[in-house]
Amino acid sequence: MKGYPDSIQRVVDNFRKLPGIGAKSAERLAFALLKRRREEAVRLSDAIREMAGSIGYCEQCRNYTEGTCCSICSDKGRDKQLICVVEQPEDVLAIERVGEFTGLYFILHGSISPLDGLGPEELGLEKLEALIDQLEIREIIIATNPNVAGEATAIYIARRLKGKPVQVSRIALGIPAGGNIGYADEVTMMRALEGRTRIILE
């Protein structure tokens, strides 16, 4: 049964593809756009189109950027010998909100999860290894999520970097088990970074 035009249905269908958006939420968003001025809906459409066409990956850390290098990697005031490895770009925002971390980042864009078709080769670790050699990194902080996939990824990275002249540490469990770093508050994130422990492999 259809209660509204195809053009609205297409918008609803596209909203439903976004994470956390169900059928009812998608409908509310579509109708909210219709209730606003037409110019506002057009501005949103233009902004999405511009974002899709201009955003790429930083050639160094793999974060989102409009140029070849993101603002963090190009900041001369950052500690170039300290890298925090995270799963997603939104994790960078969570750590940056704390305002205490002054190093660089490396974004994996996922974690090792065979069921989702993500293996180690999809995480760009060869680029991370190149950065360690290029920038003479002294410490790698692994800040993957404290769930099964995140822990497996942390262990894999630590083992892969075992022969490198770099200290590898893991954020503390200020982040609850099964949680998501991107949703952590500033105090929790700060304690997790401050309480990081060195990963020692046998």
Give your account of this protein's structure:
The protein is α/β, with parallel strands linked by helices and 202 residues long. It folds into two domains: 6-54, Helicase, Ruva Protein, domain 3 (Orthogonal Bundle), CATH 1.10.8; 70-198, Dna Topoisomerase Vi A Subunit, Chain: A, domain 2 (3-Layer(aba) Sandwich), CATH 3.40.1360.10. The protein is built from seven helices and seven strands, in the order αααβββαβαβαβαβ. It has helices at 6-16, 23-35, 38-54, 89-98, 125-135, 148-160, 186-194; strands at residues 56-57, 64-65, 79-86, 103-107, 139-142, 167-170, 197-198. The termini are far apart. The mean pLDDT is 86.
The second-level CATH architecture of the largest domain is 3-Layer(aba) Sandwich
What portion of residues is helical?
40-55%
Distance between the termini: 62 Å
Instruction: Supply Rg.
Output: 20 Å
Strand content: 5-15%
Largest sheet: 5 strands, mixed
Count of discrete structural domains: 2
Instruction: Report the average pLDDT across residues.
Output: 86
CATH fold descriptor of the largest domain: Dna Topoisomerase Vi A Subunit, Chain: A, domain 2
Can you tell me the overall shape?
elongated
Low-confidence parts lasting 5 or more residues at pLDDT below 50? Answer: none
Counted beta strands = 7
